[in-house]
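Co-fold these.
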Amino acid sequence: AQSVTQLGSHVSVSEGALVLLRCNYSSSVPPYLFWYVQYPNQGLQLLLKYTSAATLVKGINGFEAEFKKSETSFHLTKPSAHMSDAAEYFCAVSDGNTGANSKLTFGKGITLSVRP
Amino acid sequence: DADVTQTPRNRITKTGKRIMLECSQTKGHDRMYWYRQDPGLGLRLIYYSFDVKDINKGEISDGYSVSRQAQAKFSLSLESAIPNQTALYFCATSDPRRPNQPQHFGDGTRLSIL
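Predicted complex below.
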């Protein structure tokens, strides 16, 4: 069975500062990993995904994440935060036995606040 | 038009009522999923269906049932709603022929049970 840990429920950064949202996973098979963003009162939007190709994955809106097998991590970063980045972010791992896009296990989510 | 449509978008109802949430998709995907989102808990899988004849329980299926009426339709029912089923519910689809493509999510149904 797979699991995802997102430490902390809230991160606050200043506009222009580095954004770092942490995600650690557990999986008995090679994992497929995802970051989703949810803006207030909206649905889920895929930021980026790792499906066993390049370990450094670039996504939308300037976000990227690096898959580190030795650390079982998939942390999300953005060099310079923008006010529009304020949202809730979810890390997720899929059941590798049934495909990268199969049933997902989500972390509990991290709320990102951006201070002017 | 949205590829994955959930109806209703919002619903307020009373304890003990039977409720059905509907999901329809135009993507032609075989696989469909129901998740619920609770503050501080993320999203959790309720039920999933890999094709019309295949339905499986997820992590939190107690109190819920589903029906896969066709490839394009996957309904979630609460037979006797209780307040702790108040949550945001998401339907999603995926295509097993394109395993590197992510799941597609609907916009969610916000359900409140009084």
